[in-house]
Amino acid sequence: MKHSSLISLAAIAGVSALMLAGCSSSGGGGDGETGEPAADRACVILPDAASSPRWENLDRPALDTALTDAGFEADIQNAQGDTSQYATIADQQLSKGCGVMLLVDLEGAAGAVTEKAQAEGIPVIAYDRPIEGADFYVSFDNFKVGELQGQSIVDGLTAAGKDPATATVVYMGGDATDGNAAMFHDGADSVMAAAGIVPAAEPPGIWDGDKSATNFEQALTALGGKVDAVWAANDTNAAGVITILDKNGLTVPVSGQDASTAGLQNVLLGKQIATVYKEVALEADAATELAIQLLKGETPEVEKTLEDGTPYIAVTPVLVGPADVQTVIDNGEASADEICTGEVLAACEANGIE
After folding, report:
1. What gap in Å lies between CA 197 and CA 208, rounded to an integer?
2. What's the pTM value of the predicted model, to 2 decimals?
3. Which of 66, 67, 136 has the alpha carbon at shortest distance from 103?
4. pLDDT digit string (tens) for 86-128?
5. With contact defined as beta carbons under 8 Å apart, do 118 and 294 qualify?
6. What are phi and psi of 177, to 5 degrees?
7. Which CATH architecture has domain 41-141+280-315?
């Protein structure tokens, strides 16, 4: 899939604006004689609890609350990074009946689940990560996420008095099996390449802080200990990179994503130039509004599509620097008590965090 042409950079006016003519929904999953959906049950599979704290801390409660408040049953399970477990969970959910499946892909495991669900007439929403063949895709504007990250690196180099065109920049991308990873990369590279940046090293992508640390340390060694900036695709990867930078007494612009507690701490400490904040509540609202329409047997109609024609609801992300951390806290997606500990306390006070 080509990603750079898929995403409009315009802000989405409102995630509730789902309705234009065009997309039909599928019925099924529990009432095979009539083809009507099992209208009281939404089946959700989350990928893990390691790649980002958001899945359990933010997505699960947001999805559960929205679905149950609307009067539907929410069966939300987590595969804990195991593709076999992902398939097992799906089979168990399907055996009980689903009116809709909302899936976060895990290393391609959602593809087979999508086929099984659709064979039973159950519509599938790809949540946060694209899934080939899904009926709908709900995510943030992933190319825009990358653009924000790339711009933060360019701005950080400029602020440090470095010419981006001659800077030594390492790219630490996400797992290649995650369809979003290419969009993040392409968005970031579009901005950095325009500024003349060519990656000095680009280790294999992964969503794992420890492995990112190992990969970055190897790259740094190969570069003779010289690095001017690091494009890191999310806060978990950035944290791994920062452990190696700290070990070598280096502070350079490092990008991030997710506005995690650790990421926000690193932003406040000046170890990470910024993090891309994707307000989970907005994405969850968009996905559950869509799911509820399907559960009610309605026909959702969506303005945007991916290049393959999949209806696509894109939510707009924002960049968070030290002065913006309070916004994440005010939205209930971070805690000042958890962020402002130890060496971070003084930085919190300096930035008015409360």
Report:
1. 25
2. 0.78
3. 136
4. 999 999 999 999 999 999 999 999 999 999 999 999 999 999 9
5. no
6. -80, -10
7. 3-Layer(aba) Sandwich (3.40)
CATH code for 142-277+318-350?
A: 3.40.50.2300
Residue with tokens 């689903």: 98
Q: Where in the chain is the domain with CATH 3.40.50.2300?
A: 41-141+280-315, 142-277+318-350
Q: H helices within the chain, ranges in order? A: 54, 60-69, 83-96, 109-119, 142-159, 179-194, 209-222, 235-247, 261-269, 280-295, 325-330, 336-339, 344-350
Determine the Cα–Cα distance for residues 175 and 226; give it in Å rounded to an integer.
25
Joined together, the tokens standing for residue 241 give: 């990179």
Classify burial at 80, counting beta carbons within 10 Å of its beta carbon; exposed 0-12, middle 13-18, buried 19 or more: middle
pLDDT digits (tens, 9 = 90+) for 22-54: 333 333 444 433 345 446 999 999 999 988 888
